[in-house]
Amino acid sequence: MGYRTLLFIPGNNPGMLQNSDILGADGLIIDLEDAVALSEKDAARYL
């Protein structure tokens, strides 16, 4: 059985990461590229 739903979360938003389980997605993808400003990339990698 494959993934039915994937949830893309910006890697610089800890609140979204903490609350991602309530949406019931089969998989979680933490986006460190397009959703994160260049100035916040290091902080997002730390999360």
Outline the secondary-structure elements.
Layout: E1 6-10, H1 14-19, E2 27-31, H2 41-46
Q: Main traits of this protein?
A:
single chain; 47 residues; alpha+beta; two-stranded parallel ribbon; 26% helix; elongated
Kindly give the count of domains.
1
Taken from the alpha-carbon principal axes, the silhouette is elongated
Main sheet characteristics = 2 strands, parallel
For the biggest β-sheet, the strand order reads 1-2
Give an overview in words.
- The chain is of the alpha+beta class.
- The chain has one domain.
- Helix content is 26%, strand content 21%.
- The protein has 2 helices and 2 strands; from the N terminus they run βαβα.
- The chain has a two-stranded parallel ribbon with strand order 1-2.
- The longest helix is centred in the middle third of the chain and has 6 residues.
- The chain is elongated and about 40 Å long.
- The chain starts with 5 loop residues before the first strand and ends with a helix.
- The mean pLDDT is 87.
